[in-house]
Write a structure and sequence with these properties.
The complex is a heterodimer of chains A (160) and B (781). With 160 residues, chain A is α+β, with helices and mostly antiparallel strands. The longest helix of chain A has 19 residues. Chain A contains five helices and five strands. In chain A, strand 1 and strand 2 form a beta hairpin. The termini of chain B are far apart. With 781 residues, chain B is of the alpha+beta class. Chain B has 21 helices and 28 strands. In chain B, strand 13 and strand 14 form a beta hairpin. The chains are: A alpha+beta (160), B alpha+beta (781). The interface between A and B is large, with 58 and 57 residues.
């Protein structure tokens, strides 16, 4: 069984894993990181989106062995010192979640979207979130939250 | 003790208390939970739509590493009972035996035939492949009309008709006799897959004496009763917990095979077991929604006034009757006449068995289907008369001064103002300007045509007065329960019998109780979803939670306040009548003398000096059973651009003005309407469960079953009007289903409106580019 080393939310783990083990199952069942849920089997819904070396990936379509030597950030590792990340805060402010099942993946995808385009238009946000499905909100408030999160994060960068 | 700031909470856009946990991943989805020694269950499911099971051999699976046990349906035949149907709608209803695991015959693709229990889910998946099943294939039964013919193969021995019912009001023959206008149309409500984002999961454990079942369910209380009835395990030995539940939309309003079997497996093995469905398993086996063929006839005068409406429905039950399967089409029986006045009405419905996944409640449940039918007919009537579709509605609806109004189907609408909502919506939409643009595009022969769709709807909400459920033959009542208890320190715990899964009950109930007791919003917490804590309840569905559950909580809080008043009068040595309640304290009128609710709560806990007849602690229970349904209503308008060369439909704008009575939390209301509209648009444009000719589901994944993404939808423009409900003290009406009910016909009416000058009078849902293109090709050739 291959042995991998992976850093998750700042903690380094060494794990023996079956080659077929999915990253999301490593996170959820071996490391207790249940903040990342599974919504489909086909990488369509995006609920399981995490950051892998700084880029968002759907952790149901990554094998644990592929994460060997990588740095993973999940929704549980996003906030700093117990306070929420500006994007999480923006989702709260704009009522951009209802049942909350898609929310961790949605927040991750939104943050990744801003890496490419720190000041996205509504259309760009809608396109950027195409791989993350929500069944509750109708997306209006999610789009608003991403705009707000972008503004807050922009200010956070420009503030010395 | 100082008085903390308290203020008017009801009506305030409070951000949700629920959010922080959900946003930071500190969630309790059922699949997140574990127990020491937990075993994983997986089911082997039928690959055939209809077959006799001639042999099941699980011995190969039992020998594999990590496998603890494997069972066939035969192994459970004696103990598994039959999944319940709680709504025998008519005297002729046929309720077939429905074993949780098939024993001798399978009737839809996906029905469980065997299961394995292993130490992890990968081992369990491996073991499924080692199970040997032999089937003798039987003919599939897929189309309702064919299923009702004498030559059709039978799904069940008793035949393919599940029930039939007919309701007539007024002289229907007279209404149609010599009517200047008769519109005759048939609409199809395609089969939908509810697709809550959280797949279902169940965990069961036992200590040898009693049982705990965790399930991603909307109905922990109903589920507990039903599990006891089905399995024979005494009710008081079963505890059901619905932890965080990731969406429902009716699909988790069910007593499922997997819940029953996990409970039985925990008993059989004496160990904790968990089952989590994959999405493809879910698409096969979560009950589906809609699936009706509606034949409608409408008779009208030359001025557009409706004389009568005849509805003849075929409703696909699928292979079995689940918890409320036959009741769903009947929820639409009194909604087809909608907000319109007419002289006569007839509703007939036949429930049909087919070899497909059973249907049951899906967002709106029967009411979206009915609203779609009548709202499409209103547009057809307008077209026949060359009249504006808004005007034809104006001529027929109940005027605001006519409320309360008893409709032709016998419901009494308590309040509403269709004029106000429609005037507001058309103004926001820029109705006249869009009509001008539409005419311009038509004149120019623009390849992209503009269509305008209107839907003026009402909903029968807040399910339901127990008396009315009794009249409808439903097995249980529709009351709801609430408890409010002030803790010694003055904080407040609320217990509700409703079981939220995204609706924000914790926040809204906190607002209601904070106002009622004059305590700060942050001092209130809400407990729910565990039958050991919330010991009474009828759960969450049919937009009933606020309208019934919220009022039960309000009533309990008022009882607590009454008790506090007696205690305050005793401690302040005055009459209760001398006290006035202000800013969270009872004050002796005209003096500085007062007791805060916090002080009274401690005094009731210490119990050193209680007045006669007043028991320790400030707490109380209440149940609420409304006198009537509530009837939210509204006007939705949709503008679409239809590319007549490609069939592509683009929603250009969407305006909704809803009247949901008084609003407790405008943020939550807006969010519910947004989500509802999205689901209704999805039915109009994207979603359909498709079976092939052999009964295989072709849409088993989210790649095949098209849920809309952010890129597929526009931003919706919302506003409200307000006609308070008269059936409850808060005046609230419920909002969860409104958007879904209104939006599907608004979108399809818009598409047909765009294409009507080209000779198209209907497009079957979902109105995919291919369907629209084919319709266009049909009239071009």
């Amino acid at each position: 069984m291959p042995r991998i080393t992976v850093t998750v939310d700042g903690i380094k783990y060494e794990e023996d894993v079956e080659p077929r083990l999915l990253l999301v199952h490593l996170l959820r069942e071996r490391l207790g990181k249940t903040g990342t849920p599974v919504g489909c089997d086909t990488s369509n819904c995006g609920a399981c989106t995490v950051m892998l070396d700084g880029k968002s990936v759907k952790s149901c379509s990554v094998l644990a062995v592929q994460a060997d030597g990588c740095d993973v950030v999940t929704i549980e590792g996003l906030g700093v010192n117990g306070s929420m990340h500006p994007m999480q805060q923006a989702f709260h402010e704009e009522h951009a979640l209802q049942c909350g099942y898609c929310t961790p993946g949605m927040v991750m995808a939104a943050i990744d979207l801003l890496r490419d385009d720190p000041d996205p238009s509504e259309e760009r946000i809608r396109q950027g979130l195409e791989g993350n499905l929500c069944r509750c909100t109708g997306y209006c408030n999610i789009v608003r939250a991403v705009r707000k999160g972008a503004q807050e994060m922009g200010q956070a960068v420009s503030t010395p | 003790m100082t008085i903390q700031e308290v203020g008017q909470e009801v009506g305030r856009p409070r951000k949700r208390k629920e959010d922080a946990r959900l946003l930071t991943g500190r969630t309790q989805w059922t699949d997140n939970l574990t127990r020491p020694g937990l075993l994983h269950v997986m089911f082997l499911r039928s690959p055939m739509a209809h077959a006799r099971i001639t042999r099941v051999d699980v011995s190969g699976a039992r020998e594999l590493p990590g496998v603890v046990a494997a069972f066939s349906g035969q192994d459970f035949a004696a103990e598994q009972g039959s999944l319940p149907c709680a709504w025998p709608v008519s005297e002729d209803v046929v309720i077939p035996d429905h074993p949780p695991m098939a024993v001798s015959e399978v009737r839809y693709v996906g029905e469980a035939v065997a299961c394995v229990i292993a130490t992890d889910r990968y081992r369990a998946a491996d073991a499924l492949e080692a199970i040997d099943v032999e089937y003798e294939q039987l003919p599939a039964v897929l189309e309702m009309k064919e299923a009702l013919t004498a030559e059709s193969p039978k799904v069940h021995e008793a035949g393919n008709k599940a029930f039939s019912t007919k309701i007539t009001s007024g002289d229907i023959e007279a209404a149609f006799r010599d009517a200047p206008i008769v519109i005759d149309r048939t609409f199809r409500q395609q089969r939908l897959i509810p697709s809550a984002m959280e797949p279902r999961a169940v965990m069961a454990d036992t200590d040898g004496e009693s049982y705990t079942l965790w399930s991603s369910t909307q109905i922990p209380h109903v589920l507990r009763v039903m599990l006891a009835v089905v399995t024979g395990i005494p009710e008081h030995k079963i505890r059901v917990i619905a932890p965080d539940v990731g969406g429902g939309f009716g699909s988790k309003l069910q007593v499922t095979a997997e819940e029953v079997l996990c409970l039985l497996l925990a008993r059989k093995l004496g160990k904790p077991v968990k089952w989590t469905e994959s999405r493809s398993e879910g698409n096969l086996t979560v009950h589906h929604g809609r699936d009706q063929i509606q034949h409608l006839r409408l008779a009208a005068d030359a001025d557009g006034r409706i004389r009568g409406l005849q509805v003849d429905l075929l409703a696909d039950m699928g292979a079995y009757l689940m918890l409320v399967t036959p009741g769903i089409p009947l929820l639409g029986a009194s909604m087809f006449n909608a907000i319109y006045k007419m002289d006569a009405y007839e509703f007939a419905c036949t429930g049909v068995f087919t070899t497909k996944m059973p249907t049951d409640a899906y967002r709106g449940a029967g009411r979206p289907e009915a609203t779609f039918g009548i709202e499409r007919m209103m547009d057809e009537l307008a077209a026949e008369l060359h009249m504006d579709p808004v005007e034809v509605r104006r001529r027929n609806w109940i005027k605001h001064e006519e409320f309360p109004y008893t409709t032709i189907s016998g419901l009494t609408y308590d309040s509403g103002n269709y004029e106000a909502a429609t005037d507001k919506a058309t103004a926001m939409f820029g109705y006249d300007k869009l009509r001008a643009e539409q005419n311009d595009r038509r004149d120019r022969g623009d390849p992209v045509q503009l269509g305008i769709g209107v839907s003026t709807y009402t909903e029968m909400c807040g399910l339901a007065p127990s008396r009315m459920l009794g009249e409808a033959n439903y097995a249980a009542g529709g009351w709801e329960h609430g408890t409010v208890r002030m803790l010694p320190t003055g904080k407040v715990e609320v217990i509700t019998g409703t079981s939220p899964h995204g609706q924000g009950h914790v926040t809204a109930w906190s607002q209601i109780v904070a106002d009622a007791l004059g305590v700060p919003f942050d001092d209130v917490t809400v407990l729910h979803g565990d039958t050991a804590i919330s010991h009474k309840g009828m759960d969450t569905y049919g937009s009933r939670s606020l309208v019934i559950g919220g009022i039960a909580v309000l009533k309990a809080a008022e009882k607590v306040k009454d008790k506090a008043r007696k205690l305050a009068a005793h401690l302040l040595e005055c009459s209760p009548d001398d006290l006035e309640f202000e800013a969270g304290a009872f004050k002796v009128r005209g003096t500085e003398s007062q007791k805060t609710m916090q002080e009274l709560s401690w005094a009731a806990f210490a119990a050193h000096d209680l007045p006669e007849g007043v028991e320790a602690r400030l707490d109380s229970d209440a149940t609420f059973d409304p006198e009537n349904y509530s009837f939210p209503h509204g006007t939705h308008l949709c503008a679409v651009e239809v590319d007549t060369e490609t069939g592509m439909v683009k929603i250009r704008s969407y305006v909704a003005v809803d009247d949901v009575g008084k609003v407790v939390n405008p943020l939550i209301v807006e969010g519910q309407v947004h989500g509802g509209i999205a689901q209704g648009i999805a039915q109009a444009l994207f979603e359909e469960a498709v079976y092939d000719a052999d009964g295989n589901l072709l849409t088993t994944t989210m790649a095949d079953y098209l849920l809309p993404s952010a890129a597929d939808l526009p931003t919706f423009t919302l506003d409200r009007t307000e006609s308070p409900a008269t059936s409850n003290p808060l005046g609230v009406k419920g909002v969860g289903e409104a958007g879904t009910i209104a939006s599907t016909p608004a979108v399809v009416n818009a598409i047909v409106d765009a294409l009507r000058p080209l000779g198209i009078h209907d497009v079957e849902m979902p109105c995919s580019p291919e369907r629209v293109w084919r319709a266009l090709e049909g009239v071009r050739s």
